[in-house]
Structures are given as structure tokens and as C-alpha cells.
Design brief:
Blueprint: E1 2-4, H1 6-12, H2 15-30, E2 40-43, E3 50-58, E4 63-71, E5 85-91, E6 97-102, H3 103-122, E7 129-133, H4 139-149, E8 154-158, H5 162-173, E9 182-185, H6 189-193, E10 198-201, E11 220-223, E12 244-247, H7 250-256, H8 258-265, E13 274-277, H9 278-282, E14 296-299, H10 304-321, E15 325-326
Parallel strand pairs: 1-6, 7-8, 7-10, 8-9, 10-11, 11-14, 12-13, 12-14
Antiparallel strand pairs: 1-15, 2-3, 3-4, 4-5, 5-6
Helix pairs in contact: 1-10, 2-3, 2-10, 3-4, 3-10
Length: about 325
């Protein structure tokens, strides 16, 4: 068995590689080529934290995985990840565990890659401005993925913690990988999404974090933070304006995400307004963007097949490079 830390993972893969792996996982899901039970969630006594267990198996990959990931929002204030966890990669022939991988890092990368895959498939080619709401544990990978698939000139960032927001924007402004891009800490959500072509939300908010009436025509939105039926960071006002509502996995979203379940219960949208999953777009079953004026909403709750695809890629590359700690 190989043990892979975040440092190990960062040495062997790029965001673009993870995006391609996640795209493959979406296509496999659309074609029914994997087994992905819905996640098991155990609520914490504090009422806001939770323990999550996410299994997946793909015969074609000859592997299975189990991710244990825990959502502890208050960890941000402790300087800790809000989503700590580990992934077990399991050999499909023997059932032995072949790798133990830093689950928090993989979660950030594959969640960012999910947004990257959606923006690559659904966003306008000429995007110039990005917007990110939320600067917690998932935020950096969301922004990295956004920048991996579109050549942006400017990105606005907003968070209810103003100091954290400024520090986040400054860190990206000083990152040599993103030279030539302007990063701004916005004073409020309206300023953040003004004229934005790409909008990503990565919060744990139970209420909408931006005004859906102020999203410009042609924008693509990725709603990342909500995986619970009683929470919705996405403003329902944008949904009737959207020409397409696409999910990472429709069944999972309709079981878990308040972003869509709450508007459905209120009659703002109907189930028929949710066209399908991103895999349906990627394998040509559904059309992607059909005009520059379309508003397209992508709702993602995270699916274990994404973890399996990312973990398999990371493990293969680490073994080839001789990176990681081997535990016999």
C-alpha cells in the first residue's frame, strides 16, 4: 500500500489532468459503467457538522474507492480544513487496499475539477471575468480550475470575512502562475458578480449568497457548496432565467441539494427544467451551450466516482514517479 500526502499529490498531478479524469468519470456515470451508491451522511450533534461516507466501483478501472470526508465549517476559524478526510483506493482484482490518499486534498481538487469540467463544456469561449463567492477550503481549487479552462483577465472574490477575502485575493495576485490576471476583493456580492462570465459559489450558507436577478446574460454558474436539502446558496431567482440546469449527477442532486429541492418545492421550477447530468453533455446526449446569451446553471453535490477517477490517476502517477510512502 502506498500512502500519499497533499505534498505528494501536488507533485504528480495538475489541475488540467484532474479535470480530464473527472470528465471521464462523468461519461462513465452517464453510460452506466460504474456503481455509485448515494453517500451516507451522519449528522454531528452540533447541528452543522457531518460525517460522510462515499463508495464507488468501476470495472473498467479495476478499482473501487471509499472516501471518508467530514464537514466541519468551524474549522476555518481554527485554521483547519473544513472538509478533512481520507480516500481508500481498493484493488479491483484482490480487494486489497492499494493506497491511502489525503482525502481533503483530493476533494478540493476533484470539486474544483468538477467546476472546471462544467465551465469547459458549458461556458462561452470568450469569458473575461470570473467571480468566486466563498474563500474557505474549497475556494482555491475552484479558482484554479476556472483559470485552467478559460483565459480570464479579472476575477472578483467575495467572502463575509473581509480580511480573509483580501488575503485570498492577494495570494492569487502574487502567484506567478497567474501573472497578468487582476484579482479583486469585492465589497459585496453584487460587486463580485457584476459583469461576470463565470460565477462559482463555494460556501456553507443556508441562504442565497448573491442576487440572481443581477447575473448577466451569457453567464455560467457553478454552485458547489450545498449538499443538504435545507440549504441553498444559489438564489432561486436565477433559475427561471436559466436556459439549462445541469447537474454533476441528477439523481444525487435531486436527493441532496437544497439549491434545487427548495425551488422545486416552491414551484419556481419543475423537475423537467433540470435537463440532466454533465456526463450527458460530454457524451453528446444533450446539447451544451447553444447561444452566447444563455444563462446556464451547474449544480454539483460531489459524487464518489469523481474521487475514484482522481485517486486512480494520482496513485498511478505517484507509483510511476516513485513518490509516496510505501507501507508493506
Amino acid at each position: 500500500m502506498i500512502l500519499l500526502s497533499e505534498k505528494d499529490i501536488r507533485q504528480v498531478v495538475t489541475m488540467k489532468e484532474i479535470i480530464e479524469a473527472v470528465k471521464t468519470s462523468f461519461v462513465m456515470m452517464a453510460k452506466g459503467e460504474c456503481e455509485v451508491p448515494l453517500r451516507t451522511v451522519i449528522e454531528h450533534a452540533d447541528g452543522e457538522s457531518a460525517f460522510l461516507f462515499m463508495p464507488a466501483y468501476a470495472q473498467e478501472m479495476d478499482a473501487a474507492s471509499l472516501k471518508v470526508v467530514n464537514i466541519f465549517p468551524r474549522n476555518i476559524d481554527r485554521g483547519l480544513s473544513s472538509a478533512p478526510g481520507q480516500i481508500l483506493l481498493i484493488d479491483g482484482e484482490t480487494g486489497y487496499i492499494s493506497a491511502l490518499i489525503d482525502g481533503a486534498c483530493v476533494t478540493r481538487l476533484r470539486t474544483g475539477a468538477s467546476t472546471g469540467a462544467a465551465f469547459d463544456a458549458l461556458a462561452r469561449e470568450d469569458c473575461r471575468k470570473g467571480a468566486l463567492i466563498g474563500t474557505g477550503g474549497q475556494a482555491a481549487a475552484q479558482l484554479e480550475a476556472m483559470l485552467a479552462v478559460r483565459d480570464l483577465e479579472e476575477v472578483s472574490v467575495y467572502d463575509i470575512n473581509g480580511e480573509r477575502c483580501r488575503q485570498f485575493a492577494e495570494a492569487f495576485q502574487n502567484d506567478p502562475r497567474f501573472e497578468g490576471i487582476v484579482f479583486k476583493a469585492a465589497a459585496d456580492p453584487d460587486e463580485c458578480i457584476a459583469d461576470a462570465d463565470l460565477i462559482a459559489t463555494a460556501t456553507v450558507s443556508a441562504r442565497p449568497v448573491f442576487d440572481g436577478t443581477k447575473v448577466k446574460n451569457g453567464a455560467t454558474i457553478s454552485a458547489v457548496g450545498t449538499y443538504e436539502p435545507h440549504k441553498h446558496e444559489l438564489d432561486p431567482a436565477v433559475l427561471p432565467r436559466a436556459s439549462k440546469i445541469i447537474c454533476d449527477w441528477r439523481d444525487a442532486v435531486l436527493s441532496e441539494s437544497g439549491d434545487l429541492l427548495i425551488p422545486l418545492s416552491q414551484g419556481i421550477i419543475r423537475e423537467s427544467d433540470i435537463q440532466g447530468s454533465l456526463g450527458d453533455i460530454l457524451c453528446g446526449r444533450l446539447p451544451g451551450r447553444e447561444s452566447d446569451d444563455e444563462i446556464i446553471v451547474y449544480e454539483t453535490v460531489g459524487v464518489a466516482m469523481q474521487d475514484l477517477a482522481a485517486a486512480k490517476l494520482i496513485c498511478e502517477k505517484a507509483r510511476a514517479a516513485g513518490i509516496g510512502t510505501f507501507w508493506e
